[in-house]
Design a protein that fits this description.
Length: 182
């Protein structure tokens, strides 16, 4: 398809076709998650689960791609799915209008090939890492705050978020721990 022909500059045709069968779960559809969902849909990832139990409010208008004045009060997950229908009707996007918790974690994550962390809570991120490890699903961690951003791939068993969000150490201590491992 012409839609994906520019992808071939970075992906082979075979890789591009493989994206159609990929299942990606994005946990958090706000500031970071909205942009991730947008790009995954444009790239042609075939199945995107959009997970967020929150709704848009006025404070989201200046920084969240999925928010607009008409979406105030609307589910972030539902808005992500509506946006994907406009951006790429060839993909399947599913709204899961729930907060990610210990109680629903396995049900939400099972069957996905990759999970994207776009959460805003350290405790939720650590829970996500644990469940992804249990289910043997790779996790892509992302976080933003103002002009600062971080990204990391967490393969099952890596426990990378334990170093980033160490409760015993400040960020310098966690960095020193990580450098010792390297």
């Amino acid at each position: 398809m012409d839609r994906y022909k520019r992808n071939v500059k970075t992906l082979t045709e075979e890789e591009n076709n493989m994206l159609k069968s990929c299942k990606v779960c994005v946990i958090g559809c706000g500031g970071l998650g909205g942009y991730v969902i947008e790009m995954l849909g444009r790239l042609g990832v075939g199945h995107i689960a959009c997970v967020d139990g929150d709704v848009f409010d006025e404070s989201n208008l200046n920084r969240q791609i999925l928010s607009d004045e008409n979406s105030i009060g609307m589910s972030k997950a539902e808005k992500a799915v509506k946006r994907m229908k406009i951006v790429n009707s060839n993909i399947e996007a599913t709204a899961i209008k729930e907060m990610f918790t210990q109680k629903n974690a396995i049900e939400i994550l099972e069957g996905n090939h990759v999970v994207v962390d776009a959460l805003d809570s350290i405790d939720s991120r650590l829970l996500l890492q644990n469940i992804c490890e249990e289910l043997k699903i790779p996790l892509v961690h992302g976080a933003i705050a103002g002009w600062y951003g971080q990204v990391s791939t967490v393969l099952p068993g890596d426990r990378t978020l334990d170093f980033i969000y160490s409760r015993k150490n400040n960020s310098k201590g966690a960095t020193k721990q990580l450098l010792k491992i390297c």
